[in-house]
Structures are given as structure tokens and as C-alpha cells.
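W.,

You were right to be curious about this one. When I first looked at the sequence I had no strong expectations either way, so I just let the prediction run and decided to look at it fresh. Below is the sequence, 505 residues in total, followed by the output.
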Amino acid sequence: MVHGLLVFLKKLRTFCTYLATKLFSFSKSAQQSMKYSLQFICQNNPLFAQAIYFTSISFAGYAALKVLKPREKPNTLNDLDLLFTSVSASTVSSMATVEMEDFSSTQLWLLTILMLVGGEVFTSMLGLYFTQAKFDTKGSADRRSYSAYVDIESSNSTKSGPNSTQGTKVTVPLSELHLQEKDQVEPKAIESLDAQGVLNRKGIGFVIFSVFTAISSVGNCGFTPVNENMVIFQKNTILLLLIIPQILAGNTLLAPCLRLVVWSLKKITGKEEYYFILEHPEAIRCKHLMSSKECIYLILTVVTFIITQAILFCSLEWSSEALQEMNSYQKIVGAFFMSTNARHAGESIVDLSSLPSVILVLYTIMMYLPGYTSFLPKDDEHHSKAEMKGKRKRLLENWIFSQLSYLAIFVMLICITEREAMTTDPLNFNVFSILFEVVSAYGNVGFSVSYSCKRLLNHDVHCKDASYGFVGKWSDKGKVILIIVMVFGRLKTFNMKGGRAWKLR
């Protein structure tokens, strides 16, 4: 009997060893499968990958904001406002439904992290990581031969989205397969010489203000830790001049700045990898790497837009009440600050509701334009031929709306949800104010015409003006729609060609 028990235990041990080996092999295989599946999804369906990414960090931010307690009023921030703020920070939209000073320091640090991981610089680094992972999966035979093939698409294929398939193959040294590893634009702390008194009065630390504002500016989010945004700093020209280049470097001029960095590294190190990047930026498959010609066009476009807006702002607002306490130099700096922010950042030194309608219309157009908009001519002949030769049109693509169509749909939906307020409070809830808010959220800018109790037709003694945006006075349904608009706007690069099948005759 003892012998039989020993035999049974031996067989049981053998079986357990065999089972453990199989489970280990299965877990390793499953891990590899999940890794390759994730890489495949990210490389072949970037829209899905980015949608999952922004959704995940938004809900994670909401959960963290829910756990962390506000500054003084723990019951004033409801769940929808916390979710709205989290989505606004992660999509760098800076739309607000609550006072920023209601958040505690720990919550501000959390919003800082959300702005950082949701900014264009960080997300582009993730894209380069997955591109590099694709190259890393190539066979060892290619590695031993010290060369591999890299698909180099046409000069405009980096902007054509996931449907681009045409390209030529060029033999590139293996060391150049890791060209994605390069310095990124890093945020710098802002040194405001005369702002510390204001911060001390509000009980906000200088360090958290500097880091928060710097990351918000580089990420083009537009959030600031104070309720008044940058209005209380409208005379601090040094602070405004420090923020302007950070805003430009973080979005509209990110591509020229990145090319300048690569060019500088090539001059300093003399490595061929940097020369290859400058000559074939499309090989890296990063939309922020452009040719020198494209960078020049982009810089001229951005400068033209800024100067045009600044001239119009100065000509119409020079003697306005909002700028009456500023001298001429401060007004000029403020005009350029507003013009820089109108594209995507959203920081403001004046109450936008006090600006003339023509400026608001111009800002609406600027907010709608993508960051890399260029009105100078480009050579698209090669791209057109390649596209016509190899593209297979799918039925679904013929039914994709243009971006203007989506904006019109969102505006109509919000007009439905806010129809009662539009009837009782028409001066605040008008179609243009709603359109301005929607375009601002879609462009991830953050400008808002705000809400004013003075515009009420029937005076309400209980009405209180707030520093947050116009959306803060919307219904819950309207806020949910604007959350969708912010996420949709963050992913708008995947629908740049929408609506091409719709012909207006």
C-alpha cells in the first residue's frame, strides 16, 4: 500500500511538473500574442489605438480626481464635471465647467500629468515607439546582414492617413532603423518676475503654477491654475513673451523646431543617421518630421496668421475698456499673445465676450484650422498619381462626412439640448456663442465667450458670474456632447479627407 502511494505521488509530481511547464509555455505564448496583437492594432489602425488611449487616460484621470479631494468645497464638483475636466485636460482642450481654484494642489498636479500625456509631443513619441517596435520584430537574418528595408512613402503620405499604401523600398543601414530615438521638445518652467504676489494672495504655490502653466502651454491645453486664466497677468509682458514660444513650439511650429533639433544634432555629431532623417523625413512615418520646404511654408503661414490677427486686434481694441490700464507696449504684446493662442492654446488676457464680433469670427476660423495648415502651394502631383493608381475605394468611405458637416451636427444637437435656455436667455444662449464653443472644443483650443448675468433679460438676484467657460452653464446632456466633440477633435487628423465623395453642383 505504501509502495502504491509512493507511485501515485511520483506520478502526481510528474503531472504537476508537466502541467506547470505547459502553463508557463501557454502564458508566454499568450503574452507574445497580446504584444504582437497590440503592435498590429497600433500600426494598422492608429485611429482605434488613439481612441482607446484618450478614453483610457480620461477615465483614469476622472477616477483619480474623484478620489482626490477638492481644495475647500468637497461637494461642489459632481461626477460629470470631473469627467469633463479630465477629458478636457487629456485632449488639451482647456474647456472648463468649474472654477480652477476649486481644485486642490494634488488635483492640479494630476491635471498637469494629463495635459503632458495627452499633448502632441508625448503622443507623437508613443507613435514613434510603436513604429520602432515594428522594425524590432524583423528577423535576425536582417540584423546579421546589418541592413534592412524601410518603406519610404511619397512625400505627402505621412499626412494621408492609414489608407496610404504606395511606397518604394530603399536599403537602409540597420542603425538607421532607430532614427525615432531623438530629443523631443521639453517644457521649461516659467519665470514670472511680478506674478508671485498674485499667487501668494491666491494661495497657489509658485512651483505648481510654473510647471502647470509651462506644460499647459507646450501642450497647447490653455488651462491655468487661477480662475482668471491670464487676465490678471495681462501687464506681465515678460511672462507672456516666455509663454508665446512655448505655445508655438508645442503645436503649430513643432515640425520646424523638431527639424532644427535634428539639424543641430547633425552639425554637432556628424552622424549619418541625422542626415538621412533630414533628407528622407517621410521614412520615419511621423507627421511632425517635414521637409525644409514644408517647414518654410508652415512658418510663413503661422507668422502671417499671427500678424493678421494682431493687426486686427490692435486696430479694434486699442482704446477698449479691457486694455485701458495697459500701455502701448503691453497692448502690442497682448495682441500677439492672443493671436498665438487663437490657433490651439486658448489662454486669454481679456474676456472674449467683450471683443467685437469680427474678431470672434476670425478666432473661430483660426480655431477650426489644423495646426499644420499652410496656404502656400505644394507639389501634390506625385501623391495624386500614386493615390489614383493604388487606392481601392470602399463603400464606407463614400459616406464619411466632412468635418464641417460633423460640426454642424454637433451644433444642432446642442441647440436641441439647450433649447429652453435659448428661449429664456437668448443673449447668452445664442447660436454664435454655441458655435464658438463647439469649434473651440473641436480645435482643442479652450476659448470661451463665457456667461454673463448682465445679459439676462430678466434680472436674477441669485445669478452669479463665474470664471469658467460658457459650457459650465449648459445642461448635462450638452456637456456630454461637448466631451464627445473634444475627443473627436483630438482625432480629427484621421478624417481630413472626409466628405470627398459628396459633390455639390
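Here's what jumped out at me. Residues 298 and 374 are 5 Å apart (CA to CA). And, maybe more interesting for your project: The beta strands are 147-152, 168-173.

Coffee later to discuss?

I.
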